[in-house]
Amino acid sequence: MRKRSQILIVDDSELNRSMLADILYKEYDVLEAENGREAIAMLQEHEHEISLMLLDIVMPEMDGFEVLAVMGKNKWLESIPVIIISAESASTYIDSAYDLGATEYISRPFDPKAVQRRVGNTVLLYSKQKMLENMVTNQMLDKEKSNLIMVEVLSHIVEFRNGESGMHVLNIRSITKMLLAQLCRISDQYSAIQPRIPLIANASALHDIGKISISESILNKPGKLTPEEWLIMKTHSEAGANILESTRYYPHEELVSVARDICRWHHERYDGKGYPDGLVGDDIPIEAQVVALADVYDALTHKRVYKEALPHEVSMRMIFDGECGAFNPLLLQCLADIGPQLEKELKLKSLGHASKDEMIDVTRSMMQSGNVSNRTLALLEQERIKYQFFADLSREIQFEYTAHTDTLMLSEWGASQLGLPSFIENPNGNPELLRVMVRRDMESLRNLILSASPKDPKVSGHYLLNVNGTRRWHKFLARPLWLGNDADIFTGFIGKCIDVHDERLKMDRLIEQANTDALTGLYHRKAARKVVQEALDEAESGMCFTLMLFDLDFFKHANDHYGHLFGDELLQETARRMLGAVRDVDITARIGGDEFLIFIESPLDSTPAVERIFSSLRCTCKGHPITVSMGVARAPQDGMQFDELFHCADRALYAAKQRGRNCYCLYDDSMAGQLSVPSEIPSEEAGGQSPDQACGQ
After folding, report:
1. What are the domain boundaries of the chain?
2. What pLDDT, in 10s, does the model give residues 605-649?
3. Statement: residue 352 has pLDDT above 80
4. Which of 272, 423, 665, 687 stands the most exposed, by the fewest C-beta atoms within 10 Å?
């Protein structure tokens, strides 16, 4: 009797292992491992008995890529082929799996018959074609050597400065490979490049390492760079080349040499208008030309801190119209040829995981096919029960958004609380949802979620929801979902919201108490300074403001003569009259003793407003007349900083007192030398700005 081949299934999900075992048990003996470490232990014990491994990528303990790396190091891949079965369908994942030695890559959900055929063909191939095994092994070892070199070089860079790697370098690598492959197909002139394509693609990942020498204030500046900043930014190409030239690791390796050329010349342009050397035409190494074009395309089609992503069609038009510089006509032809493939890759980035309804449909289909064991069905039902149980038990409004279907799913309890269906298509345009949460807040929440990164994926915010006709504060906790760990491939988000209305009101009261004067309820001095400066900083061009500083005439006399309680009544009455004379958006403060401040947005000529407010402050309290002396400063003519306006108003107030009190004075330059004793106002450092890199810098 023929000995059955053994298949090792490695997946952290018991459900997934069960489904694969159901497909294969008739033809093969099946072993199971729930993580990478367990799989390695089983390989050590059964190395010569296992004919094939079915491997997931995303697992705890040790992921699929790490398993492949260990298998490669121990040369197990020479005799044990690996088929990746994963829900991760991005090209970068697939390329990485093949680079590490995987034989096949099957995306989940899969066709059971297709799995059977691929497993059978792979087992047969490895059993009968030892020569092919050796060829694959040699290719893999070459790639491992290149990867080792890359690791060593990157280690040198890390020593220079910590940086971050993102999807950009992976995109450049993929686009570079595609452009080079097409170039070899259409031109015999570059046919010799064919065997070097993997090496050049690997080298392209280092094209921007010179940016580690650039200040973060320039790299992360959202606005346009100044001419001086642009000159600094342009030095990154030479800096990168110098780093590679000075590395002590593998200085003579072709990878390092090619990477050095790419670093230095990937911003050269075919017409000689690039930098740093102004090379023209084919004087630019073809490797650098290809990476330059890949860099521009990726910069245009992906979101950056200084710009939104542009559609494929718009990006291609800009490149071919010369808006991003001149390129080799032959490479432009290659770009046009691979354009549909690039567009497909972009669309892949908008794909998310299947919704729960879609997964249920898949499950039902499998059940009808009769290829699922009782164990698998029990596990499926168990997962559904657990999810529903915890969702209902939590008494929280849970939600899940799936990008590629543009659908929002709410937990049943949450949907009932909000009076909404549990499944909402096109949430941004759904009238029922917009009744519960206004569009502005929905957009704010989405932007907050999109601002997260894999290193810090959790976000939170407070928003008002209309619940049964009452607007109540809710705390939102959410995190985005990406395809794998790639923040450029957004698939949706999950989260929950909790009613925190009562806690929010209590916190607002505490904040108000911390920022207001206990006697009058107005802002105190420190809070007034902060809110006034914020208003000045956020002012749009053409806006004018007026700051009024005043105190009560002869207040000390009234306080001493009638007592402190009467003095407090005068201050409270003044505060009431201030609030009655201004708008809700205006700023009122008691900044000390009997000294008050009013800050308003005003016309350029604010005299009528000042006159009205000044007049409203004069009154009688229990037979005692209240009059004030007021100094007035205006923005922008007297300054756009709180300190400037305050000191000008203080000098004008001194002038008003010199004129006999019970009047106001507008500050002018003649008062600059007036004696005043401005209170100390602590200065606060202004924040900085932060990348202007359209078409790639």
Report:
1. 6-128, 143-348, 356-491, 512-671
2. 999 999 999 999 988 887 788 899 999 999 999 999 999 999 999
3. no
4. 687
pTM reported for the whole predicted model: 0.36
Q: 512-671 in CATH: which number?
A: 3.30.70.270
Pick among 2.60.120.10, 3.40.50.360, 1.10.3210.10, 3.65.10.10: CATH of 143-348: 1.10.3210.10
CATH code that applies to domain 6-128: 3.40.50.2300
Please tell me the distance from the alpha carbon of residue 489 to that of residue 349, in angstroms, as a whole number. Answer: 4
Q: What are the strands, taking DSSP E only, across 391-540? A: 397-402, 407-410, 423-425, 459-467, 470-483, 486-499
The pair phi, psi for residue 295, each rounded to 5°, is: -65, -45
Q: Are strands 486-499 and 544-552 parallel, antiparallel or unpaired?
A: unpaired
pLDDT of residue 697: 52
Question: In the structure, what pLDDT confidence band is assigned to residue 128 with cuts at 50, 70 and 90?
Answer: low
CA distances from 522 to 485, 515, 570, 584, 668 (A): 50, 8, 14, 12, 28
The gap from C-alpha 418 to its chain's centroid, in whole angstroms, comes to: 29
- State the catalytic residues: 594
Structure tokens at 490: 């957004």
- Residue 504: which residues within 8 A CB-CB, separation 6 or more? 462, 473
Which residues contact residue 317 at a Cβ distance below 8 angstroms, ignoring those fewer than 6 apart? none
Residue whose pair of structure tokens reads 């023209």 in the numeric block: 280
**Architecture of domain 356-491 in this structure:** 2-Layer Sandwich (3.30)
In one-letter notation, the amino acid at residue 134 is N
Q: What is the mean pLDDT of the chain?
A: 80
CA distance 691 to 674: 46
The CA distance from 241 to 262, in Å, is 8
